[in-house]
Amino acid sequence: VIKCRAAVAWAVGKPLSVEEVEVAPPKAGEVRIKIVATGICRTDEHLLEGCFPSADFPVIPGHEGAGIVESVGEGVTSVKPGDKVIPLCAPQCGECSFCLNPESNHCLMSHLSEPQNLLPDKTSRFTCKGKKIHHFLWVSTFAEYTVIPEYAVAKIDAAAPLDKVCLLGCGFSTGYGAAINTAKVKPGSTCAVFGLGGVGLSAVMGCKAAGASRIIAIDINKDKFAKARELGATDCINPQDFKKPIEEVITEMTGHGVDYSFEVIGRADTMNAALASCNMNTGVCVMIGELPSGSVVSIDPMLLLSGRTWKGTLVGGWRLRDSMPKLVSSYLEKKFNLDLLITHTMPIAKVNEGFELLRAGK
Ligand code: NAD
Ligand code: ZN
Ligand code: ZN
């Protein structure tokens, strides 16, 4: 058993509490990882607010991390102690019917099918003050050590800087992959990205990498525009600067609407606006943002009747165990720049300040 620090969420709506926790050794098929760096994604905030589907408290959040294998359980063959790895918030068991479908990246072991608040044998490896602590998406990267099933771990290049590639664990891969894999943005096309947090900015990077000729970036926080431009946005607009609905503004700017739109906020009104902003014929709208579980969004069915496509993405459509080593190599080959997405770096003791910065749009 390892004693280490972790940020524990004891109850919905409470700040995280940095505690000493005990982390049990990995059982068969599991890997214990020393987490070196982790990002904060809005999805962690959804968890703290109690809006994430089938989550149990107390829990150790975090799902965008990178680390080094400390020890492995019986039967683990794909990684060994000392390997650099990225924990996967969407597993790839490689054996279920979804994994066997080459067009799918949604493993039947994922949280949407099977809650990942406990490890697959329905027990936890974390305790704190004598209490069982739940896992989050199996990865719980807000702990200095965590235990994860082998099929939710990807070995990466030993040269990878863990404080940068941790962003591949969720935010970057989601936004970039939504453009490349889910929308399949074509060269010369037009795109609109609603919401310029870490995930939305990554979607801007994906549209640019795919060769889009026009990328319209939309946010109510003007401070996001400089970085969006640096990453490839050609137009930056704030819906609050217009009297008419933003979908009308975008339709006028582009003639008939963009070819691809992305909702990267997690609101019903902006999901409708993003859908109506892509052209009524072949437009594709990708929903990335998450609404509180159980929410219902109403849309005018005419928006789809004329041919538009409305789809969602799970971590950008990547089969993460296969793709993660390649994404890390692409980063090391400077095919994209993660460093620009990093706004602040702080120790785990200041995790609540990190969330304050997220809430303040900084
Ligand atoms: P973030 O909070 O950093 O960014 C959201 C951005 O939206 C902010 O810049 C904010 O100013 C802007 N915004 C808020 N309200 C707006 C409005 N009414 N109009 C225009 N802009 C508005 O969040 P993030 O970490 O980038 O995550 C974005 C969303 O993606 C979240 O809902 C998160 O849960 C979700 N997400 C989904 C997946 C997936 O697999 N589908 C993965 C990661 C994150
Ligand atoms: Zn599977
Ligand atoms: Zn995330």
UniProtKB/TrEMBL annotation:
Its cofactor is Zn(2+). Signal peptide: none annotated. It comes from the Eukaryota. GO terms for biological process: retinoic acid metabolic process; retinol metabolic process. Keywords: Acetylation, Metal-binding, NAD, Oxidoreductase, Zinc. One of its GO terms (cellular component) is cytosol. One of its GO terms (molecular function) is all-trans-retinol dehydrogenase (NAD+) activity. Residues 13-361 form the Enoyl reductase (ER) domain. CDD domains: alcohol_DH_class_I_II_IV (cd08299). Belongs to the zinc-containing alcohol dehydrogenase family. This is Alcohol dehydrogenase I.
